[in-house]
Amino acid sequence: MQGIAGAYLPAVSIDRSASKPLHSQLYEAYRDAIESQRLLPGQQAPSTRELASLLGLSRTPILSAYSQLIAEGYFESRPGTGTYVGLSLPERLINVALVRRPTLRNHLRDRTVSKRSEVFTKLQNADRPLGWGAFNVGQLALDHFPFRIWSNLVNRHCRKIRVSLLHLSDPAGSLEFRKTLSIYLRTTRAVDCEPEQILITSGGSQQALEIAANVLLEPGDRVWMEDPGYHRAWQPFRLAGCQLIPVPVDEEGLSVAVGIKQCRKARAVYATPSHQFPLGVAMTMPRRLELLDWAQSTGAWIIEDDYDSAYRYGHLPIPCLQGVDRNLRVIHVGTFSRTLFPSLRLGYLVVPADLVDRFVAVRQAMDICPSHLYQAVVNDLIGEGYLARHIRRMRTLYGTRRAALIEALEEQFDGRVKVVGGDAGLHLVAELPSRLQDVEISERAARRKLWLWPLSSCFLSPKRRQGLILGFGGTATKDIPNEVQRLRETVHF
Prior knowledge:
By secondary structure, the chain is of the alpha/beta class. The protein is about 40% helix and about 15% strand. The protein is globular.
């Protein structure tokens, strides 16, 4: 185990009026911190000079305490580098730590927590194991990311940092960035907005959904959800106490007629009209107009997640639903996680002008304001044309990988799986015969480092189809045939 950088002073209490000698107090404080594992093996201790200055003591009691700790194996001295918590603590010290560490097993039955937290725990546990490798839905071709350009822009803004940028800023986000983003969204997505209608989020589209749910909905409100749909989008609405109404998806997108039949008075709908997750269909214009008419006639809200609209193959991008809305019923949600990198966590909402104040108030209550640096960097990526060029390059690359995956599936499975939703985005679905169990297949595949997402896990309703959601963004074109062959060996027809 390597040493932990940085010498920290444990929480010690030195009582100069006590009868116990100072060196004994200091020795016991460090010993207790080590035995309770508040200080870990390899962690550096302050030098005796530094500790004397921090505690306002002479070095004599500190040297005495350190000598005793070294003699008993709690500390070890490394010439030229300093004093560290021992890497090989005596077994008796480990036993003491185990005795002192309380077990939490069965404690929850005596402690009051919210019931909805159990729902989220079950959802989290239901997530399939995902790792770095073939078919991971969230994986991008990050080896093709423009690292040099990104680093140069980050360095540019770090070099010219101003004191004002270190303070808390506008909870809606940088106005300069929102101006640039409004032009970008109007141009590329036909979004009808002004900069003042945009809110920047620090948690991608997930935080955007949580903000929208808190502004628009009350506990007990019913919300249409695409079925199948993006299961992580269920969580913000469940957190808000809403009742989720599964509405089926067909070849035209969300079935508005079925939704009306099941629950006409729903207060909102969550939809992915430009590229439905996971089936990949684009909502047709008649269906979009039908959805907008329903929302206007009932006073419902449409929360449009435009998560994967940048990547379409062989077709022009489809304008967003918000740009067609004339009654201000649509909340538009987007993220840079798919076009740049997932851990960026930079997202946005576009909201009707009369709701901006409420959205800003809720957004501020969550984490006060977004960080300045990444807003400034992405502002320059967009404004200087880097983002557009990056998306064009990636669209070509992903299109090649998509074609290779479809070809390999057809060759290896010989028509026994149905490929769905390959016209856009970074994943497609291989539908399976109903007798097969996609969850079992995904678990077998994970043992072979193939990271599949079972289609059945995306259904709210009990009537579930079997299939495998296959991401192709992070797998090199040359590797796809071999990975599909390994997948074929995993699926037992």
